[in-house]
Amino acid sequence: MLKTLKQSAIVAKHILSLSSSTKSFTRHLSIKTFPPLQSKLSALCSNGQLQDALLEMAVQGLEIKFEGYDTILNECVNRKALREGQRVHTHMIKTQYFPPLYLRTRLVILYCKCDCLDDARHVFDEMPERNVVSWTAMISGYSQNGFSSEALSLFVQMLRSGTEPNEFTLATTLPCCTGDCGLDYGRQIHSVIIRYNYESHVFVGSSLLDMYAKAGKIHEAQRVFDGLVERDVVSCTAMIAGYAQLGFDVEAVELFRRLLKEGMSSNYVTYTSLLTALSGLAALDQGKQVHNHILRRELVSYVVLQNSMIDMYAKCGNLMYARRVFDRIPERSVISWNAMLVGYSKHGMGSNVIELFKLMRAEGKVKPDSVTFLAVLSGCSHGGMEDTGLGIFDEMVAQKDGFMPNIEHYGCVVDLLGRSGRLEQALKFIDEMPYKPTAAIWGSLLGACKVHSNIDVGEYVGSKLVEIEPENAGNYVILSNLYASAGRWEEVRNLRELMKEKAVSKEPGRSWIEIDQTLHTFHASDRSHPRKDEVQMKVKELLVRLKEAGYEPDLSCVLYDVEDEQKEKILMGHSEKLALAFGLLSTCEGSPLRVIKNLRICVDCHNFAKFISKLYGRQVSIRDKNRFHHIKGGVCSCGDYW
DNA sequence: TTAGGGTTAG
Predict the structure, then answer these.
(1) In what side-by-side order are the strands of the sheet with A510-515?
(2) Which end of chain A is more exposed for a tag (fewer CB within 10 A), N or C?
(3) Nearest-nucleotide field for A104 (CA, C1')
(4) What is the average pLDDT across A496-503?
(5) pLDDT over 70 for what percent of chain A?
(6) What InterPro entries does the annotation carry (predicted)?
(7) Which nucleotide is nearest to A106 (CA to C1')?
(8) Which residues in range 226-285 of chain A are in contact with strand B, contact meaning CB within 7 A of any of its atoms?
């Protein structure tokens, strides 16, 4: 009797220990099926023998129930084993097993992970009951596959059903708030977040600040970031990336430095965002330093990071380094190719663009995409290879690479035709293309009219532009330049009146130059730089010397209605001239000058830089909003077309 | 069981 009792106690203890190890699912346990089958299945699964595990399930038939399905479905999810998962699902149906909520949710997760959203949704719709996890799993499936509106509408349905969202749901749903109404949806979710007190949760907070940053609301992003009770790599990276994406490059770099000092950990994503900011600044010395950090930390094998480095070096003007990074990537993605192609294109190196594009086609490992063709077409345009570009467009239309041109590619063709002076043909092309012309397309044609001094087409195009984009000052400037160059001052005056009427404002011009790892920024007519007086003197000195050599300030670049003397003063205050003067003051004779400008360079500054390169024997490179100008001996790589 | 940040182009 005593012996039997003792035995029962041992059995009971065994069951209890099993219960605690399998958490809350103990009610399904039976000594008959568990533990031998369970441990056998687990062993098979962990050995990767999913097939054998399935066979074992089939042999055991209905005896398996929860534990068996759970074990094998778990393994299917971990390995994204769709076929095996489907067989388990079929097995459930065949044996008329009625899965509980937990297993149904596992099926939803499995199908979502394997990109079978319809199957996931089917299981989800058939669920007799749902909890926050099943809702979140389905929302996450949509969210991660880019089906934002489905995810958002499911989120709304979830709230209506009375299920409260948790931190997982909120962090998953926020990334769906993109596009036109993204900010509105985002703000509504923000209010839900506040209601449930998740604003300072690190995952929810990073998602929230990212949403604001992507909507261009940097201050709101910053407010969320400042309110986080705990910060980690992701939230910090999100903030740095937010700054970088919106062009707050200095803030991005400063935040990175500050956080580094505070001991924040960083990973390859952090460096990617940091490189974006350094690319914007064209801070070559700092970029090289970051490259060294990446090498030392052995992060260099991330393709994303290598792509960022190609872009950084190209935007800093060093194509040789960019190419070296490109050549060392073992598995290039389409973005690696594009970054390199865009690099050559912006530097006006048309033949390099074509050569690399041929290599890409010949290798055939990576398919060109929309950006590839934009880079190739604009590369032909910047490099003065109009007919080659037009030929490639024809190949696109003929579907040589299985890729149809979109409106932006049509825009490139307008650019190519305009550049080669075929303005009437460009007008006809716009008229016949299958898209409605955008302001950018008219804008590029207007630029072409200015370069080729074609008033007739220019007037027509200008009127179209002012109609679509009355607030864009750049359009008035080009049109006014066009009238001025034809001596039609009456029209220039009318245009100026029109500008005043529409209260057009221009983004303030800004240029900078990197000297010994420090960026020196100048604004138009800047009086804030510590060496402003020296700079001013230098510009005056340059003006005298350049005039002796034949330079004549192009007063038509000034739109204000003032005396010519005043116009010359305004021109001499242009930020790129200040940066060039400062460069001459701070570097030794013969060394190259590298200036960055936030807007497109004006004709007068371009001419000014050409004279400097010739008279002072300097290679001058200027990166403007559109492209690089490499000026040597008074000749610019853009061929005076930009 | 479910979650957040990143690269080219414009």
Answers:
(1) A518-523, A510-515, A593-597, A620-623, A628-632, A635-636
(2) N
(3) B1
(4) 74
(5) 93
(6) DYW_dom, E_motif, PPR_At4g14850-like_plant, PPR_rpt, TPR-like_helical_dom_sf
(7) B1
(8) 232-235, 237-238, 241, 244-245, 267-270, 272-273, 276, 279
